[in-house]
Design brief:
Helix 2 (55-63) packs across helix 3 (84-102) and helix 3 (84-102) runs parallel beside helix 5. It is globular, with a radius of gyration of 18 Å. Helices cover 42% and strands 13% of the residues. It is built from twelve helices and eight strands. It has an eight-stranded parallel β-barrel, surrounded by four helices. It has helices at residues 28-37, 55-63, 84-102, 122-126, 139-160, 177-186, 198-204, 211-219, 234-242, 247-252, 266-275, 295-308; strands at 5-8, 42-44, 68-75, 111-115, 163-167, 192-197, 224-229, 281-284. The chain has one domain (5-308): TIM Barrel (Alpha-Beta Barrel). It is of the alpha/beta class.
Amino acid sequence: MTALRIANAPCSWGSLEFEGLQGEAIPFGQMLDELRETGYVGSELGDWGYMPTDAGVLRGELERREVAMVGAFVPVALRHADAHARGEARAIRVARLLAETSGAAGEQGPLLILADDNGTDPVRTAQAGRITSPLGLNAKEWETFARGAERIARIVREETGLRTAFHHHCAGYVETPEETARLLALTDARLLGLVFDTGHMLFGSGQNDGQVVMETLERFAERIWHVHFKDCQPQVAARARSERWDYFMAVRHGLFCELGKGAVPFPAVVDWLRAHHYRGWIVVEQDVLPGMGSPKASAQRNRDYLRSIGL
């Protein structure tokens, strides 16, 4: 049986991609030291400029800690055609750094993690976790969104050899299971994979039943190239919906709790991944904001929990 590899990400040390959700500025070196000390063997890149952008320097920092670079998040407002060229340029810049740092490509290399420009549309941000069909894209916008995603995935593959996977995400236009399914149906399975995020899938479904995670894993099985482990606290989720909090308010109130403290059935998820011979990375993402405690202690508790369920 192939061992499942466990990584973490800079967001777990307070480096989040959203304005207004930034934690305390922890230097990347301290973050990588603490990541390794708490038992993780891979990391995502984080925001551009958080880690070194010189491939040789970054490779040295990773190699001396025996940490693999597993991917990088690139948000693009894909429903706007005039954003595609700028998004492509950013994606190529990031993908080149990943490729030059890792020296690997294809299934063995890191992933370019493409996403909508989440948290920038006021309506979708305000309604996160309770999205209804009228709030979604129209047919023309879906076509523009899908073609933009394929365009970026294609040029990343041609220029760097790396694969691209799309991250469904709350407060963006691909949040719900149905929206995720729509994007996958409109895109080439050979070109664009899926980053399956357990917490975002559950909250984005509008439900608090962890069975949703299992049903969507099965539904999207053939497209899953990368997995994010994030939990979702059902009482906070219910309050966010009933009190109509926006996405950022929900996160500040601890929507995405530590692993094992929410509604995501992680033991069943692990069993599913093993049964389906998943060979990608599992990346723990724990949004740690000021007042939420020590990032290192949180990372350790999450790693200990994963060990308790056999990882």
